[in-house]
Amino acid sequence: MIGYYVHHQGLGHLTRLQAIAEHLRAPVTGISSLPAPEGWASDWLHLDRDDRMPAADVTGADPTAGGVLHWVPRHDLGLAGRAAALTAWVARTRPSLVVVDVSVEVTALLRLCGVPVVVVAMPGERTDRAHALAYDLADALLAPWPEAAHAGEWPAARRARLWAVGGMSRFDGRVPPSRRPSVRPATRRVLVLWGGGGRSTSAAEVAAACAATPGWEWVERGPGSPSPDLWAELASADVVVTHGGQNAVAEVAAARRPAVVVAQPRPFDEQVATAAAVDRLGVAVGVPTWPHASAWPGLLERALDRGGEGWRRWSTGHGAASAAARIDELADEHGRVAHDVRTAS
Questions:
Q1: Which residue has the higher pLDDT, 210 or 170?
Q2: Given a cut of 70, is residue 197 above it in pLDDT?
Q3: Where are the domains of the chain?
Q4: Average of pLDDT values for 147-174?
Q5: What is the average pLDDT value for the chain, to the nearest integer?
Q6: Sequence-distant contacts of 197-205: CB under 8 A, at least 24 apart
Q7: Class of domain 188-313
Q8: Which of 49-53, 120-124, 173-177 has the lowest mean pLDDT?
Q9: Given this chain, do its domains 2-169+318-344 and 188-313 carry the same CATH topology?
Q10: Is 2-169+318-344 CATH 1.20.120.430?
Q11: Residue 243 forms beta bridges with which residues?
């Protein structure tokens, strides 16, 4: 049996769990302060939240323990409850391993309990002490992007433990829509994708981009306006404008659509790194911030010129299945070791 920890911020971590779990052989327990997603049929360990301390009190509570960790504010009422529930679950179930997506503190606690850990590797500037601790503790680092995107500057010891499986999407395995006809339609369509982690781009900025691109119809989708059928909307879009979150990028990649990836502010410049990587690899147009309205006609044309076939370098179409196979293999290995230890004792 394995566990899979899901961070509560945004929607991407939960989406990734669901995509991978569909392919796992081993029974899996979801672990999070989020509720289990709709339709989840496996076990779910619900943890206390660790972010209920009033914001005015956080700074004086040394939340990073002097830069060693990311989030351990002194006297936070949720931290002890989370730790107690997690360690009790480990003692009760003896998991073969746990995937952590993502938390330095959960990684360290599980490893202190003797549990092998697979840490989901995130893009951006991850050279701080806390990330170094989590990555060094991990038995493996699961990367939802191709190795060429971000791993070039990683130390050799980490690259040796890196599983760069490429983009992982709920649409893995589907046949991408066929290319658009060569005759230019009277009105072309832009599909804009926003994520659950917040946005800095205002409605006025989007409206200005629409006004600056006559002949283009803009449609926005996000937590406040979910798509009735995202795959169909991706298929019908001439260009997709998406934030730089890993799951949104993976879904555009699965559909092989021309795209502009616009980074939104995130810790450690995660989305800035992703936008730069897709641009450098030539799979899409990537920009670090929402561009001025006057830039949008050229950006949309550049995206069309690049097309969508370059996404094959980002997404194999079976990233989630590849991740699950690696996890199952490592779980089997550690399960055999754990059985031998228990038998010997």
A1: 210
A2: yes
A3: 2-169+318-344, 188-313
A4: 91
A5: 94
A6: 197/9, 197/10, 197/11, 197/12, 197/245, 197/264, 197/266, 198/264, 199/243, 199/264, 200/264, 200/265, 200/290, 201/262, 201/264, 201/290, 205/290, 205/293
A7: alpha beta
A8: 173-177
A9: yes
A10: no
A11: 262
